[in-house]
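Supplementary notes for students who missed Thursday's class. We covered one full example, reproduced here. Read the sequence, then the structure, then the short commentary at the end.
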Amino acid sequence: MTIFSKILAGQIPCHKLYEDAHVLAFLDIKPIARGHTLLIPKEPAVTLDALSDDAAAAIGRALPKVCRAVMKATGATSYNVLQNNGAAAHQAVFHVHFHIIPVLEGRQLGIAWDAAASDQALDTVLARQIATLLG
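Structure (token representation):
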């Protein structure tokens, strides 16, 4: 059982911001910035690819609404939406969750992006494989 499961079960309190039949949004207890919010599905899934289509659609409907409210309440003009899948991708709580992190007072989320040129021949093969899997 994760901390998010305990929050959903009412065993741990939270600063609830939004809730419907499928999702819950609340303030992060260790925020990077004032207004740092977490949006979680009520469906228990460790990674995004494990979510049902219905739960994913519910996240998609709620995410813009929650972002707008966080921006307005904090006065932020920029924000990050961050979502990690798996320990190697820095996921710490193994329940799908989205971080909505307002950029305030010039403090930005530090993200290093170590991009490199792609191999077009390999990308052609990979694109075909992925497209085939998507049907």
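Commentary. The radius of gyration is 17 Å. The mean pLDDT is 94. If anything here is unclear, bring it to office hours.
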